[in-house]
Specification:
This protein is α+β, with helices and mostly antiparallel strands. Helices cover about 30% and strands about 25% of the residues. The strands form two sheets. It has a five-stranded antiparallel β-sheet, with helices on both faces. Strands 6, 7, 8 and 9 form a four-stranded antiparallel β-sheet that branches. The longest helix has 18 residues, at about 40-60. It binds coenzyme A.
Length: about 180
């Protein structure tokens, strides 16, 4: 079961104790401003259960991020398979969601770099993508810091959002092995 360590972070399996801080993060309108809605406790727990199970079953996924000696749970960063169809799927994506207290410290970039390295070295992936709402500048800036590249021709409309929804236009970034 893979756990990843970086200079400042531990990317680990999920624990029951993560559910409460995860629900708080998912209920924070600032953290969720680029998502259609905040999540209820039940929705948040179901989400944690799903992504935690993926790690238990496959040994990788959206890991819980711990900041040793500072925060037992700061959010998640890791790899996932998008659950919708688009021009770039099937694919593996790198993604992140951190509680507000942990923004502005480079944690998403540091953890994202470790997740990309794991995906290429351990999973043997040829390519890892990342995508976000075009308006989500903090997120696409992480992609840029990770050295991922965007071709505007790859931009897409998220199929799970209704036409005309302001968050529907998405940017796609790619990173290739080697
Ligand atoms: C997306 C998200 C993870 C980005 O967080 P972030 O703090 O901007 O990104 P990082 O963790 O990489 O931190 C980078 C910032 O830390 C700063 N920083 C401070 N100390 C640092 C250090 N030691 N090392 C590196 N960077 C450091 C950088 O300068 C940068 O700040 P800047 O953007 O003002 O230049 C965060 O906004 C978030 O969780 N949002 C809500 C969920 C979400 O939208 N997820 C993405 C959905 S697709």
């Amino acid at each position: 079961m893979a756990e990843l360590r970086t200079e400042r972070l531990l990317l680990r399996r999920w624990r029951d104790a993560d559910l409460e801080p995860f629900a708080a993060l998912n209920a924070d309108p600032a953290t969720m401003r680029f998502f259609p809605a905040t999540l209820t406790r039940e929705e948040s727990d179901a989400h944690a259960e799903r992504i935690g199970r993926q790690i238990e079953e496959e040994g990788w996924g959206l890991w819980a991020v711990e900041v040793p000696r500072d925060a037992a749970f700061a959010g998640f960063v890791g790899l996932a398979r998008p659950g919708f169809e688009a021009h770039f799927t099937p694919a593996v994506e790198v993604g992140w969601r951190l509680a507000r207290a942990h923004w502005g410290k480079g944690y998403a970039t540091e953890a994202g770099r470790a997740a990309l390295a794991f995906g290429f070295a351990e999973l043997g992936l040829e390519e890892i993508v990342s995508f976000t709402s075009r308006a989500n500048e903090p997120s696409w800036r992480v992609m840029e810091r990770l050295g991922m590249s965007r071709d505007p021709a790859d931009d897409f409309e998220h199929p799970r959002l209704p036409e005309g929804h302001p968050l529907r236009p998405h940017v796609l970034y790619r990173s290739r092995a080697g």
